[in-house]
């Protein structure tokens, strides 16, 4: 471990100033004896500079002195030259000094410009080496004419000296590797760990630090914005040539500079066909490195996993730009608008949705609102903040509008929030976020807290990617591919799990063969609860209430001839899963299978719509992979029904896998597979 003093010295060594404050004259050009060297470390004689030592070039002399300094425990810098090219004999003398030579320059204070209070490493060290140019033997050469190894500071140990800036270098190969990692969105700390493993070095022993990597990545961002925009458009066109189903739109300003750009991938457009009924349009992100707001369209697939639909970068978020973004998105999705769209509080966005998606239900995303609670209520409520937050979420999840209204007034009175403007605003827009007002609209379970964590985790994957704007479209594609791989693994795990039937009802066993494990678990919860409810036939339908209650309940309307059923709780309309009230009526009416229309395609194991399978062109690799994943999922479902089926499937898949491995792999595909393997 380094001493505290050594750590402070290393921090000081990052001083970039290079003022020529060291004064070295010819009188110091005497060879130094080892006894005169203060605080110097012992080195081999053939590595110690000496008067008269010859070098072919001044760069060779500098390299030699650098190696000597590294062995001793310090670094050097070029200090002063005498004689200039084109004047007299040109460059005739050079000084190389210890990096701690000279004194800290006095900076002129400027009130309008913030000053960096950074400690300087300068301490007036007199160690140096001087070389002079001579032509005595015909060919020009450089000789050591002065050398002193006197240091007035402590020298570093070998395991410490490598942290000096002069010895921290990133090779071209390492730079390329870092950029590949940056595109995948992993953190700098993760990059360092991966490179340590690749190079088989101990943690902390790479020839560069995390700060160096961050500086490298930052340098790639300091490019001309116009050049970046041109490269970004070129990148999109290149992707379009390779993947015809990749779509992008952009606008230019009056100066012909990129203003807005939106894009979506072939696999995203395909997923939207089935899972685009409920969409989150997240506009809360900002690409700090590129100073552009970032908005993302996402949804949830049949296995409860986030699915990516598209991205848009806007120079400014205003009514015109947001309207353009929504138009572009609808264009990508062949004009198909979602049933519901969840967003953050944004008046411009609310107006844009009303104009561009008039048939879509607009609601506010509760987790985007809740993210602002600490800044709104923490100071106001103090120790009662957590108590209030728990009460708020209880109100949010209520089933009855009347109960919500009554409980809201009680909450305001209990916590003394009558004059709080945020509470007043939340109440004014309650129909856009409170569940009792939204149950008749489909949300695919996106309002659940678990989905917010999954979606945020996915978004952060490519927001943490650190590279050029031109590569951002590619970075998002990497993140989407990574998410698809993770989703596939979770899908396989879900399908391999043995489904446990809890009620023994025929409806339950039938639903287990049709729905994904995720959706079936949601339905199974309602089936278990249905056993606790009583059903009473009325003139206009059925009244269903909990067996412990004598009043109230839900009205269920069932028309067996038409195969339709509905409930006043609107649970099916909200989630796509039949409620316990409707299931109780079906069970009491001797219905042994849930009607087909109440097992929605979007929750089934096969991601196809009736009579219209998702088509993919022969060159749409992402689409074909999706179809293969669906086939594998269905195979596992059918094979797991009996031991004989499982044995047959295992045998045939083994044969098929052997045949697939025998097929040649094109070089480009091999490289793509290798990249994907490294990402995983």
Automatic annotation (TrEMBL):
Record GO biological process: regulation of DNA-templated transcription
Q: Where are the transmembrane segments?
A: none
MF terms from GO for this chain are: zinc ion binding
Q: Where is this region: Disordered?
A: 9-44
Coarse class of the primary localization is: nucleus
Does the keyword Metal-binding feature in the UniProt annotation? yes
Q: Where is the SWIM-type domain?
A: 557-590
Keywords of the record: Metal-binding, Nucleus, Zinc, Zinc-finger
Where do Polar residues bias regions lie? 16-25
Q: Where in the cell is it found?
A: Nucleus
* Pfam families, A to Z: FAR1, HTH_FAR1, MULE, SWIM
The answer to whether keyword Ribosomal protein applies is: no
The record, for InterPro entries, names: FAR1_DNA_bnd_dom, FHY3/FAR1, HTH_FAR1-11-like, MULE_transposase_dom, Znf_PMZ, Znf_SWIM
What is one term from the GO cellular component aspect held by the record?
A: nucleus
Entry function: Putative transcription activator involved in regulating light control of development.
Family membership noted in the UniProt record: Belongs to the FHY3/FAR1 family.
Protein's name in the database: Protein FAR1-RELATED SEQUENCE
From which source organism is this entry?
Rhizophora mucronata
């Amino acid at each position: 471990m380094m001493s505290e003093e050594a750590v402070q010295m290393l921090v000081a060594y990052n001083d970039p100033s290079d003022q020529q404050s060291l004064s070295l004259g010819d009188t110091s050009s005497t060879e130094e004896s080892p006894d005169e060297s203060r605080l110097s470390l012992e080195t081999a004689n053939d590595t110690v500079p000496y008067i008269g030592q010859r070098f072919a070039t001044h760069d060779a002399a500098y390299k030699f002195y650098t190696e000597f300094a590294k062995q001793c425990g310090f670094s050097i810098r070029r200090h002063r030259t005498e004689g200039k090219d084109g004047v007299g004999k040109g460059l005739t003398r050079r000084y190389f000094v210890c990096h701690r030579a000279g004194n800290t320059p006095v900076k002129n204070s400027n009130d309008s410009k913030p000053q960096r209070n950074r400690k300087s490493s300068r301490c007036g060290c007199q160690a140096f080496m001087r070389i002079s140019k001579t032509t005595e033997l015909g060919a020009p050469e450089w000789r050591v004419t002065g050398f002193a190894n006197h240091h007035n500071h402590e020298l570093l140990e070998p395991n410490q000296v490598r942290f000096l800036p002069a010895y921290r270098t990133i090779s071209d190969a390492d730079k390329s590797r870092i950029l590949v990692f940056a595109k995948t969105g992993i953190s700098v700390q993760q990059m360092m760990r991966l490179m340590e493993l690749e190079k088989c070095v101990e943690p902390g022993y790479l020839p560069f630090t995390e700060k160096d990597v961050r500086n490298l990545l930052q340098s790639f961002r300091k490019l001309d914005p116009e050049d970046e925009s041109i490269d970004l458009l070129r990148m999109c066109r290149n992707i379009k040539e390779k993947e015809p189903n990749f779509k992008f739109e952009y606008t230019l300003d009056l100066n012909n500079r990129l203003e807005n750009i939106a894009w979506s991938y072939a696999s995203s457009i395909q997923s939207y066909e089935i899972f685009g009924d409920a969409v989150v349009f997240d506009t809360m992100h900002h690409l700090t490195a590129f100073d552009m707001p970032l908005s993302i369209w996402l949804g949830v697939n049949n296995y409860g996993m986030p699915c990516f639909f598209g991205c848009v970068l806007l120079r400014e978020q205003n009514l015109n730009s947001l309207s353009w973004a929504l138009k572009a998105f609808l264009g990508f999705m062949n004009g198909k608008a979602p049933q519901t769209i969840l967003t953050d509080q944004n008046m411009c966005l609310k107006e844009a949705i009303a104009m561009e998606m008039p048939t879509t239900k607009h609601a506010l995303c509760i987790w985007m609102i809740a993210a602002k609670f600490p800044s709104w209520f923490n100071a106001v409520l103090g120790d009662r903040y957590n108590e209030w937050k728990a009460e708020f979420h209880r109100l949010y999840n209520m089933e009855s509008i009347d109960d919500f209204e009554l409980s809201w007034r009680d909450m305001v009175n209990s916590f003394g929030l009558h004059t709080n403007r945020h509470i007043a605003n939340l109440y004014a827009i309650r129909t856009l976020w409170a569940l009792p007002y939204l149950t008749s609209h489909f949300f695919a379970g996106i309002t659940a807290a678990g989905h917010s964590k999954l979606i945020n985790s996915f978004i952060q994957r490519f927001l943490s990617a650190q590279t050029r704007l031109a590569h951002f479209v590619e970075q998002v594609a990497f993140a989407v591919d990574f998410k698809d791989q993770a989703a596939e693994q979770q899908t396989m795990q879900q399908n391999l799990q043995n489904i446990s039937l809890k009620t023994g009802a025929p409806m339950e066993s039938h639903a287990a063969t049709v729905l994904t494990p995720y959706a079936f678990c949601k339905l199974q919860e309602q089936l278990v609860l249905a056993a606790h409810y009583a059903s009473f036939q009325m003139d206009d339908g059925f009244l269903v209430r909990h067996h412990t209650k004598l009043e109230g309940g839900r009205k269920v309307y069932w028309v067996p001839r038409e195969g339709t059923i509905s409930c006043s709780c609107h649970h099916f309309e909200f989630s796509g899963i039949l409620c316990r009230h409707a299931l109780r009526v079906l069970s009491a009416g001797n219905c042994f299978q849930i009607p087909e229309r109440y097992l929605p395609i979007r929750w089934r194991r096969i991601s196809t719509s009736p009579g219209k399978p998702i088509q993919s062109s022969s060159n749409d690799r992402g689409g074909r992979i999706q179809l293969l994943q669906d086939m594998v999922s269905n195979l596992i479902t059918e094979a797991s029904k009996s031991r004989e089926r499982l044995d047959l499937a295992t045998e045939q898949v083994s044969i098929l896998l052997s045949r697939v491995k025998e097929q040649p792999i094109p070089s480009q595909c091999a490289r793509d597979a290798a990249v994907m393997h490294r990402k995983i």
